[in-house]
Amino acid sequence: MSREADIATLMAAADWLGGAFAAPPDAEWVEANAAPAGRDARAQIGERLRAQETARAIDRALTREAPAALAVTLQRRYTALFEGIFPPSAVLPYESAWQPGTDGTVLGGTPVAEMEATLRALDRHVSGAYREPADHLSVELAALAMALGESQTALARAMTRRLQGWVPAFCAALSRQDADGFYAAAGDLVLALIGESAAALEGEEAIATERIEGESA
Question: What range does the record give for the signal peptide (predicted)?
Fold first, then answer.
């Protein structure tokens, strides 16, 4: 796979996952992602991320019910998990909730300010219609996708490291609260994405360093 195709697949993975965690899905989204074209796209992502079984788990989760019924099921799960309405089972998708010394419920502060600065560097901002802070998982994944797509390697590397700092704890909690569910599987795919993104971007950094050293020799 060429570098361009490799980066494009990582970008597609970040974009798809950002959308999956952005809001409760509707029946149209479920139907499109359960269709052959949606499964094929996920299979390509799963292969690149060395997470083929995770991609298949997502496929199974998206075909357990008819699209309209499954959309209602996933909407309820999204609300219960991510909107904090039922605190004992909530797994808040914000970086600030997973800082050292917090209990998963403290929001705001430095992560939001830092992500707002990152979005400015990308010449982007969170739409007022979205109503989520800049440290929401969907926003951070979108920022990673944009940095990859715009060949902003240093920024993509920084976003990958940012996600590595809190997503593992978030996904561990998500696996406990949504065992065998769509969102736990999607969380596993996020973990695979940031691992493969880190490896790819660190490889580019090593190549760039060798090139600079060769030119200065």
Answer: none
Pick from 145, 139, 144: nearest CA to 158: 144
DSSP state of 101: T
Distance CA 38, CA 30 (A): 10
- Determine contact, residues 21/188, Cβ cutoff 8 Å: no
pLDDT (tens place) for every residue of the chain, 217 residues total: 688 889 999 999 999 999 999 999 999 999 999 999 999 999 999 999 999 999 999 999 999 999 999 999 999 999 999 998 777 889 999 999 998 876 666 788 899 999 999 999 999 999 888 989 999 999 999 999 999 999 999 999 999 999 999 999 999 999 999 999 999 999 999 999 999 999 999 866 544 444 444 555 5
Strand partners for 98: none
- Calpha distance 12→206 (Å, rounded): 24
3-class secondary structure, 180: coil
Rounded CA gap, 73 and 107, in Å?
27
State pTM to two decimals: 0.90
